[in-house]
Amino acid sequence: MINVMEIDGYSAVVKYDPDIEMFRGEFLGLNGGADFYADNVKDLKTEGRKSLNVFLEMCAEEGIFPKKEYSGKFNLRIKKALHEKLAIKAASEGLSLNELVISLLSQAENNNK
């Protein structure tokens, strides 16, 4: 993935902040915020690990599960014409609309690995 750094099994998105001339990392999928800054990759990983450890320690102290739990459900709003095309494609392949969308999303995920 582009601009994603993996630290100890947690993913963080990394962006360059031109105002402070540093990279900023922000962990994704947490039950709270944990970010970190550095001007090079080596230090960014070090600072990320420190930030993550502080966050995990706080979660342990407060009895909070650190990672967000996802339900596996989300609403999607699309144009009526696209909805119709997808419904026809699903029916023609003997799939439910849900099964077709899961298949398409899985293909997109595999293409990004």
Topology at a glance:
Blueprint: E1 4-7, E2 10-17, E3 22-27, E4 35-38, H1 41-62, H2 80-92, H3 97-111
Helix pairs in contact: 2-3
Verbal overview:
α2 crosses α3 (97-111). By secondary structure, the chain is of the alpha+beta class. The protein is built from three helices and four strands, in the order ββββααα. The chain has helices spanning 41-62, 80-92, 97-111, and strands spanning 4-7, 10-17, 22-27, 35-38. The mean pLDDT is 94. A four-stranded antiparallel beta sheet has the order 1-2-3-4, covered by helices on one side.
The rough form would be described as elongated
**CATH architecture name of the largest domain:** 2-Layer Sandwich
Please, how many domains?
A: 2
Round the mean pLDDT to the nearest integer and report it: 94
Helical region count? 3
Question: Which bin fits the share of residues in helices?
Answer: 40-55%
The count of β-strands is 4
Strands of the widest sheet, in order across it, are: 1-2-3-4
Low-confidence stretches: none
